[in-house]
Design a protein that fits this description.
Blueprint lengths: L2 H14 L21 H32 L2
Length: 71
């Protein structure tokens, strides 16, 4: 098939299988959480990120304590 024939076929196929639009009444919020209080939101995000980042270090410390205690 030539490129001139394939281009319109792709556009027709894209429009045929497009996702239906949502029937949202009022203001649409694309973020699944509320961050109206920025200080609380920042504290929650920092706590989440710090706890997730510290898990490997706590696990390594725990394993080091186990190995040094049995000798």
């Amino acid at each position: 098939m030539s490129m001139l024939v394939r281009a319109p076929l792709r556009q027709v196929a894209a429009h045929r299988f497009a996702a239906p639009s949502r029937g949202v009444h009022g203001e649409y919020k694309h973020i699944p959480f509320d961050y109206s209080n920025r200080r609380t939101f920042g504290l929650k995000v920092a706590t989440y990120l710090i706890s997730g980042f510290s898990i490997p270090f706590v696990a390594a410390w725990f394993q080091m304590q186990k190995s040094s205690g049995s000798a």
